[in-house]
Every structure is written in C-alpha cells, then in structure tokens.
C-alpha cells in the first residue's frame, strides 16, 4: 500500500517539553477524508537513526484525538522515560473503533487498525513489526484496544484497556452503539460478535500480551470483571488490576503510568 499523504504538521507544539508533539492529518482511503492524529516523539528522535516502538493510545466516547495530550500532558515525559512513540488517532465521536456496517463514513477499524500504522511506519523511524506496536485506550478506547488488538494481532503484539466499556452489547442507547451497528434484530451478528467481550473468544494465532484495569467506583467495573473472568477461564495470560477511582481523568492520568511501564517491559522482552 502506498503511504498515505500527510497534509499538516505541528498544529500542537509544546516547546517547554523535551518530547515533540505534532498533530497530523492523515488521509483515510477507507473513509475518503483526512483524520487528525497526535504524534509524540521522544527527545533524541532528531539526533540519530534509532528506531522506536509505538504505543497507539485511543480516546473515549465523545472525545477526540487531542484528549490525551491536553488532559494528560505528562505522557510526553513518559515517552522520554521509556523511549517510545505515542500515537493518538481520532476515533470519531462514538465509533467504538468499528467499520460501521450501516455508515460508510465510520470505518475506524480500518483507519486505526491498518491505515494509521501503515502511515506512521512509512514516515517515521519506527520498529515496523508487530513486536514494536501495542494498542490501548480509555473507556470506548479500551474497547477499541481489545477489539482491534485481537482482530489485528498481526499488527499489535500487546493490548490494553483503562476503564474499558468492554461489553458494548449491553449499551443500547446513549453512547452511539446503535448508530454504528443499526437494528439489534437485523444486525444481530454485529451486536453479538463485535463486543470486545465476544471478540476475545477468537484468540489469535499470534499471542498478545494483555493489561487492563478499572476503578472500583466505575460504572463499567462489571464489564472488566467479566473480561477478567472470561480470560481466566480461557487460560489466556493477562494482568488485571482494580484501583480506587471513578470513570474520570484523575483515574486515567494515574492508570497510564502503569500501562506504559507494562508496555516498556513488553518491548524489552520481545525486541531483544
């Protein structure tokens, strides 16, 4: 596939930080439009030929590509500390990171799972191998981390979720699931199979490292416990943690520290 054309750079730049922060506009062939994506590169990127692993970090429902860098700016320090790149693609208002079967303008499985990694690998010094890519996110983005991570295990070697809404089947109104999947009867297969809780039943031939967590005061805690129970019954290795906290940025600002440490250890193991 030919590299996707980038149309704008450096819409966000915080010069006081060591890491560089750029906003890209990546053209999606599947959606026929440009989609914004934040890119964080560690200090030293411009001073050599070193290649870096990449963490794909997804936002939640009603959010956007800029959420992580504006709400949790210390991800720049984490990119420096762990010497990795962080990519935050826009996932639509309520895409759930699916290719909607009823709305062709929402093809975010293809965009985030295929087009963005292809563009980033073609234009930046990445470790262009599944061993050098991982994916995680918060809430809807946690669902995306599991859904895309399992369905695109040839692209990502580890997956994560923070406060993930991991059972979209029960979210029948208010969060856009019905707008992406359509009628629950006519499109029963999508409603059943495209929940992250169901997607993990098809364990990929390429094993994936898994980390997820949730706050003990979070309304989606039951979904995370269900995922932990299912993976345990399937005997799928994973790291699951519950910590005090709600479904808010205070929790995610803390959770990202643990996730990026896990991914750095993962990279150190698989990239030897």
TrEMBL record:
SUPFAM superfamilies: alpha/beta-Hydrolases
Keyword Nuclease: no
UniProt keyword Signal present: yes
Signal peptide extent: 1-18
Entry-linked Pfam families: Esterase (PF00756)
Keyword vocabulary terms for this entry: Signal
Protein name as catalogued: Esterase family protein
């Amino acid at each position: 596939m030919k590299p996707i054309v980038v149309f704008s750079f450096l819409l966000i730049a915080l010069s006081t930080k060591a890491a560089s922060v750029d906003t890209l506009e990546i053209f999606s062939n599947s959606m026929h439009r440009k989609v914004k994506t934040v890119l964080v590169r560690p200090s030293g990127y411009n001073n050599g030929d070193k290649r870096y692993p990449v963490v794909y970090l997804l936002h939640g429902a009603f959010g956007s590509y800029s959420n992580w860098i504006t709400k949790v700016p210390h991800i720049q320090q984490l990119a420096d500390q762990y010497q990795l790149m962080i990519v935050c693609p826009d996932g639509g208002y309520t895409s759930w990171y699916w290719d909607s079967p009823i709305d062709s303008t929402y093809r975010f499985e293809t965009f985030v799972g295929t087009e963005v990694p292809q563009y980033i690998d073609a234009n930046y010094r990445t470790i262009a191998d599944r061993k050098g890519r991982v994916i995680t996110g918060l809430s809807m983005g946690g669902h995306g981390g599991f859904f895309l991570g399992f369905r695109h295990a040839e692209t990502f070697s580890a997956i994560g979720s923070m406060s993930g809404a991991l059972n979209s089947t029960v979210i029948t109104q208010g969060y856009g699931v019905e707008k992406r999947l359509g009628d629950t009867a006519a499109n029963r297969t999508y409603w059943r199979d495209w929940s992250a809780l169901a997607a993990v039943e098809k364990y990929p031939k390429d094993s994936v490292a898994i980390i997820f967590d949730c706050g003990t005061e979070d309304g989606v805690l039951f979904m995370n416990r269900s995922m932990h129970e299912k993976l345990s019954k399937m005997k799928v290795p994973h790291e699951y943690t519950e910590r005090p906290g709600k479904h808010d940025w205070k929790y995610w600002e803390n959770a990202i520290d643990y996730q990026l440490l896990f991914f750095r250890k993962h990279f150190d193991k698989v990239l030897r």
